[in-house]
Amino acid sequence: MNLHEVRVHRSDENLAREDQLAYKIAEVAADPVEVTEEVTEMVINRLIDNAAVATASIARAPAIAARAQALDHPYSPGSTVFGVDGRFGPEWAAWANGVAVRELDYHDTFLAAEYSHPGDNIPPILAVAQHVGRSGADLVRGIATGYEVQVDLVKAISLHKHKIDHVAHLGPSAAAGIGTLLGLDVETIFQAIGQALHTTTATRQSRKGEISTWKAYAPAFAGKMAVEAVDRAMRGQTSPTPIYEGEDGVIAWLLDGPDARYEVPLPAAGEAKRGILDTYTKEHSAEYQAQAWIDLARKLHHEHPELVDPANIGSVTIHTSHHTHFVIGSGANDPQKYDPTASRETLDHSIPYIFTVALQDGRWHHVDSYAPERAGRPDTVELWNKVHTLEDPEWTRRYHSNDPAEKAFGGRVEIVLADGTTIVDEIAVADAHPLGARPFARADYVQKFVTLAEGVVEQAEIDRFLELVQRLPELRADELGGLTVTARPGLLESFPTPKGLF
Question: Mind telling me which PANTHER family this protein's record contains (predicted)?
Answer without folding.
Answer: 2-METHYLCITRATE DEHYDRATASE (PTHR16943:SF8), 2-METHYLCITRATE DEHYDRATASE-RELATED (PTHR16943)
